[in-house]
Amino acid sequence: MSTETSGLAIETAGLVKTFGTTRAVDGVDLRVPAGTVYGVLGPNGAGKTTAVRMLATLLRPDAGEARVFGHDVVREADEVRARVSLTGQYASVDEDLTGAENLTLLARLLGHGRPAARRRSEQLLAAFGLTEAASRQIKHYSGGMRRRIDIAASILNTPDLLFLDEPTTGLDPRSRNQVWNIVRAVVAQGTTVLLTTQYLDEADQLASRIAVIDRGKVIAEGTKGELKASVGAGSVHLRLREAGRRADAERVLRGLPAAEVQLDGDPVALTARLTATAGDSAAEQAARALAALTRAGITVDHFSLGQPSLDEVFLALTGHGTGQEGLPSPDDDPKDGVAA
Ligand SMILES: Nc1ncnc2c1ncn2[C@@H]1O[C@H](COP(=O)(O)OP(=O)(O)O)[C@@H](O)[C@H]1O
Ligand SMILES: [Mg+2]
Are both 254 and 323 inside the same structural domain? Predict the structure, then answer.
């Protein structure tokens, strides 16, 4: 495989990790360009954490090879470790210490002198919106604050490659946005980020390229544009005034080009999956769908235009869902909808 001059932060070939009879990572080939955010998208149990742990030298691959900035993760583990950071792993915060104490202590452990450690700590607390919480114990932090301090701890020394393993899972939309802004700022400083996520919109917001993994295998890889072109542009979720009109609405929508209709559990709700092309955006298609329903005399009480969920991506790519259809997603927030 190539060396550091290849411009790749990560390069793997046939990477495998087995636990008993589970092939957690089952022959993964990845090429992550340096200086970018690379998204690894997959449901629970897909093998994301196992792959990250091998790349971060915490777990030994059973087969295949992986290089980080040209260094083999097994034979040159020290060189790799010197250049990477993994949130919540190398730098884990102490619940009983305050935010400021944690960062200052970790900076001291990394070899900074006392004044430099305090300076770096203050700088990061300010950058992460934690100045006010600096003198509070971590155990009293909210989930979003906790995630931010974890990331702060992992970039005390600016790493060349930062692994963020599901940095926003379980966070509310506002906290997610704060974490996203932090990731953008980290990359702007030249760090490569490997981000794992269960949310397509998160990969879409942050990543230049995305690998979709399922059961230890990469099932799709490309730029976000390529990925979206292969899975569709999203969906219109509709709620009708009268349940009795749903069959009519379904017929009207099926008559439109490029819409795949799905009936939801709720008797007044249905979803049309859109397959937008260059000249025909998802918004235009959604507008056409609403107009057609209006012409048919069907009253729509509420609609929202959503990006494809991970489940829809999986359905499009594999013909099966993630097996986590009931999983709450930040995309499902009804406040995002538009009353019709
Ligand atoms: N230490 C372990 N021992 C046994 N099985 C494991 C271990 N770590 C992960 N697995 C299994 O490997 C698969 C992939 O897990 P993981 O890499 O954690 O996926 P993800 O991070 O995508 O949710 C799962 O089936 C999981 O149960
Ligand atoms: Mg995981």
Answer: yes
